[in-house]
Amino acid sequence: MTVGTHARRARVRVTGAASVAVRPVLEAQRRPARVLAVFPQGVYLEVRTDLEPSVIAVITGEAVRLPNSVLLAAHLPPVTVGDDASVGDRVIELGPLTLGVRRWWDPAPPLGPLDAATLAGAAALLDDPPNPGLAGNGTVGLLASSCADGWLLGAVTAAEQLVGLGPGLTPSGDDVLAGLLVTLRHLGTATGAERAVRLAGWLAATVTYDARTRTTPISATLLHCAAHGAASPEVTAVLRGLAGRQALRPALRRLHRLGHTSGSDLAHGIAIGVTAILALSGTQPPEPNATVDLESREPNATIGLESPERTTMSGAPATASGGMP
Amino acid sequence: MTPRPRAALLDAPPHVITVGAGLLDEALRAQAVRTTTVDWRPPLPGTAEALATVLADPRRQAANERAVGRLLSARPHLAGVRRASEVLPAGTFLHAGPPITWERASGPMRGALVGAMLLEGLAGDEREAGDRLAAGAVELAPCHEHAAVGPMAGVVSPSMWLFEVNDAEHGGTAYCSLNEGLGKVLRYGAYGPQVLERLRWMDEVLGPALAAALERTGPIDLRALMAQALQMGDELHNRNRAATSLLLRVLAPALVETASEHAASVLRFIDGNDHFFLNAGMAAAKVSADAARDEPGSSLVVAMARNGTDFGVQVSGLGGRWFTGPAGVPDGLYLGSYGPADANPDIGDSTITETSGLGGFAMAAAPAIVRFVGGEVGDAVRATRSMYEITLAEHPAYQIPGLGFRGTPVGIDVALVARTGLLPVVNTGIAGRVAGTGQVGAGLVKPPVEAFTSALLTLAQSVSDQF
Amino acid sequence: MSDTPAAVVVRRGAYHDSVALMRVSRALSDLPGVEAAMVAMATELNVTILRELGFTVPEAGPGDLLVAVRAHDPGAAVEEAERRLATAHRPQAAAQEQPPLTTRSAAAAVDAGLVLVSTPGEYAFLEAYDAVEAGLPVMIFSDGVPVERERQLKELAETRDVLVMGPDCGTAVIAGAGLGFANVLTPGPAGVVAASGTGAQQVTCLLDRAGVGVSHVLGVGGRDLSAEVGGLSTMRALRMLDDDPATELIVLVSKPPAPEVARAVRELPLRTPVVPAMLREGGPDLTEAAEQALRLLGRSVPEWPSWPAWHRARPSAERITGVYSGGTLATEAALITGSRDIVDYGDDAYTRGRAHPMIDPTLRVEALAGAAETDVVLMDVVLGHGADPDPAASLAHAVARTPATVVVALIGTDGDPQDLHRQAAAFREAGAAVFTSNAQAARHARSLL
């Protein structure tokens, strides 16, 4: 086996820090992996496993701390796409490096209790992220209005259509969904908006169900992470800002700077989530037009959200309880 | 230093400044935690307790901020020139550095004093001048104690002319003699006939001509002029070529208008002396540093000066007290066949430039200086960078283009000197050891550690007395 | 003394930290032809040691570096020492860059969030003061800072709204990052405020073993809860953890506080439950405190792993001696066993001018060698960041050779770089009984008498 050959060469032991999201994969039995993509500050590894995250980002320097990443306290090794690697038994073997973890970070830190009025006050700043990849897209509009109305079928339908929609490694549709998922999960929990948290559960089940076949491997992994509330620090900082725990404007600016449109798309998803939480918890949302359709929806769909087992969804809300394992 | 807004410590693993055991820094790096490592050394021997006392003095931080704030905000203007007889107390000669007696005076200091006696007609010859000085016929006082500074021997006698510089911000005034040029000159201890002849011409022609011209121009903003000169490659201690040119440009029309008879000779004299501006710059530095004086609790150095025997410093929080150590022999390049054996220990008040963030502290602005004091361009940059470690501020107007227009390091803190063991970098000329020789070279000199440590210990004592 | 030629060279004013010097000394001693080597600052203690080793030491002060070797070619050994010292840990700076020489200038140059001070104690105040003055929280690993200075620092910190951890703060964990001697912990709901580093390590390692993660460990220094210091850092740390959304429960590890300080701490309005872990006669031990925290968090208490000795203890055991590196663990052992022969080699008296026993095993190896056949030696082996990368390498050998019966309290987590299971196996192989709970180790030792 190729991996075996690697192991016989002189290996360099290095250390780093890892997101606890990758812990199950890292601590499982060793699995073969392959280099999926190489960037100046990061290498994506695809691991042959049924566990998630199945893609692990080995990063260095100032690269974005994706929720599936392991931060190397050394330079990246010279590897190319397609190279063999392995993950498991507490180490990552990549090129000549054997990487062990010396620090764990939580990509889904709790926000603590928050009252909806505070959230409503902060929400106005979320308007108009610059250059969202799906500006004016009807499906995104449907997602937003369905979430705000608590119309489960609409939200799930829109989400299914958005998975993998758009160009790039992380398509815009996935970024919007990821932003929405972590927002519903964390700010929903923080404000005690149970309906929002349940909505997160349903959406999480929907987008992770067949993500591996619907979008790029890295984006699928990030959707799995978002389903558990795990995100990069740029997203977490905006959630914290919305919760009044840090300055929101600079956090938003940092988020907007991510990727081509990723940051704006994530911010778009966050905005949809906040509007939904405020609407579902009965607090006046900041933008009246966001709730224009509220009255015209069928009431029974809203009830369906309260008790998901009565809806006609296929697949169970596997991650409805939320939180990291 | 203004405190940063509080970062939320618990939100994310912090960027850690580590100081001390390298092992703990390595352990953090192994966790991919960003660290910045302080290259720490124990402070100068015997200062640890005094440093803790001075650092913990509740007055210190605000006192230093006020003191250095005044040093930075001073707006020196060249207001005119005056004959020293108008400023000096009768029967007194001024000299550079901390107080000194004839007995302890070095060769060049003695030479300059003898020259002044001859110039003033107080002695017929060299021997008589020496005898009368030894007998105390003239009172000797440091320039610094009369709001003045003087380069090298810094001797000022009544018939010499002085630049007068006013601080438009704080209202102070400082004086400095007129520069005679290089080579055989009084300030390097020469007193031959050509030296005295030049001094007489300066008294009779140069002084009055400059007085009239400056009256015509009105006060000249030296802060702006010096800022510009730094950007033109001067460091304003050992290189004043740009500043001299800038000053000449302002003075020339006024000289022509007010002293047409002598304009050409005056302009030629200034043009022939690249250091003509030095003395005006020193007065500007002096008036700025004086603004920072007398702030109780402040550890800011407000004067560094040498008399050829002792190197002395004064500290804002300690009034007019001098703290001294033996003056060192500069290390540098020598003129002609002179060598280190011919060199006198360090002399002059020109270290007022370093005191106010110029000279050695601004070396990075003047890469050409390395041809003059030895070393390489990298040394000049390193010298300036290292001085940020012992200074309290960066000058808002005096900037260094090569360092991204960073302000020069300004405001030496005796506590930081003791903590880092890093002594101020001083550029200087080298005087001949034997009276009458003149300049023998130029280079860098290391101030004596004890001047700074004794100032620190006294400051610590004053804190203990306070509480 | 030996006939091998010796040399002692003084390098005036050359400073290196004690760990760097220990590493060079060790590397030098391992060279062929070198009989003895010690590279150390010329502190009183080190000079005495060198004289005892038979070296003639020239006049030198604590600011000077001594290179002492006895070797076939002492000149070459000294050269090797200098070469290694030159490459010892130094900030990497470009040719014309100026590394910061003080905390003050470092704080002005970078946007840092915390300062870690580990200079010799007499200078630690200066660097810590810089940090607080710049508005930065600081952890002072160094000990030997006078209590008045500690008070001054903490009063200044109140005005700047920052936390001072220490002096003598051996352990902290901030959002997963271990500072000083800390273990690799999983993020989780338990926060710790600790006046004792090894006490915090014992508690967090047990929690980690029970599957409960740790949000933060904020050290405060051993004297913080004294009347002189007034618990300023403890109260600030408690408020910070109370305000931290990740923290659901706080364990407060300390010695019994001064009564008026205890009152002030009790009166703090906190929403988060606080479990005290205070060692005192008849009180709960650290393991019991960790167990109480687990119950409050609704978790079950597991069996704490231990590995019995391969051989039964000698029946002749007469007394328990302690060879500890952690002060609080030593105190706990003394409380449980009642023995007066528990020595804390991490105390000031043993660490002046030399590295901590968690890094430098020399003194403990000597103590094991000197133990009697009738002794039960109780010792701690603390794993984690900053600690000896392989304590078994030196200590297990000493355990195997000592005539005494040895009981080891192995403090660490599965994530620690030293590999807890390999360490446990090595000590067990050497004949020791190994426990992950120090209290259980102490009770076991008592049962052997």
Overview in brief:
The complex is a heterotrimer of chains A (325), B (467) and C (449). With 325 residues, chain A is α+β, with helices and mostly antiparallel strands.
Write up this protein.
Helices cover 43% and strands 15% of the residues of chain A. Chain A is α+β, with helices and mostly antiparallel strands and 325 residues long. Chain A folds into two domains: 104 residues, no CATH class; 195 residues, no CATH class. In chain A, helix 3 crosses helix 12, helix 4 packs parallel to helix 12 and helix 10 packs antiparallel against helix 11. The longest helix of chain A has 20 residues. Chain A is globular, with a radius of gyration of 20 Å. Chain B has 467 residues and is of the alpha+beta class. Chain B has 15 helices and 18 strands. In chain B, a hairpin with a 5-residue loop joins strand 7 and strand 8. In chain B, helix 14 crosses helix 15. The N terminus of chain B is likely disordered. Chain C is of the alpha/beta class and 449 residues long. Chain C folds into three domains: 82 residues, 2-Layer Sandwich (Alpha-Beta Plaits); 194 residues, Succinyl-CoA synthetase domains (Rossmann fold, 3-Layer(aba) Sandwich), CATH 3.40.50; 142 residues, 3-Layer(aba) Sandwich (Rossmann fold). Chain C is 37% helix and 20% strand. A six-stranded mixed β-sheet of chain C has the order 13-18-17-16-14-15, sandwiched between helices. In chain C, helix 5 packs parallel to helix 6 and helix 7 packs across helix 10. Chain C is globular. About 1% of the residues of chain C have low confidence. The interface between B and C is large, with 56 and 77 residues.
